[in-house]
Write a structure and sequence with these properties.
α2 packs across α5 and α3 packs antiparallel against α4. With 92 residues, the protein is mainly alpha-helical. Helix content is 71%, strand content 0%. The chain contains 5 helices and no strands. The model has no long low-confidence stretch (mean pLDDT 88). It has one domain.
Length: 92
């Protein structure tokens, strides 16, 4: 199942898993990334739930942004390799 999901999200994963520079991986970085993804997912749900009826689609722009950040964070956190996680946080 994980390999199928990695294939489906390969455009996101290949972007963050590319490179050959040295990286310093810490397991806590992956945990924090998953936690941040869940926070942004919660923000997405809250924005969608609190949009008043009958307003334009401009209120959904934050939901799209928060949802995109959540998607990238959760995909890299759950499916990405150590290099992808380090690329999110920046190599030092």
């Amino acid at each position: 199942m994980k390999q199928l999901l990695r294939t489906f999200f390969s455009p996101i994963l290949t972007f963050f898993e590319s490179g050959d520079e040295v990286y310093d991986y810490k397991p806590l970085n992956r945990s924090i990334l998953i936690f941040m993804g869940l926070i942004f997912l919660g923000l997405t749900v809250l924005v969608i739930n609190f949009v008043p009826d009958g307003v334009g689609l401009s209120y959904l722009i934050p939901a799209i942004v928060f949802g995109g950040v959540s998607l990238v964070a959760l995909v890299v956190g759950l499916l990405g390799n150590e290099r992808a996680v380090c690329n999110i946080w920046g190599n030092r």
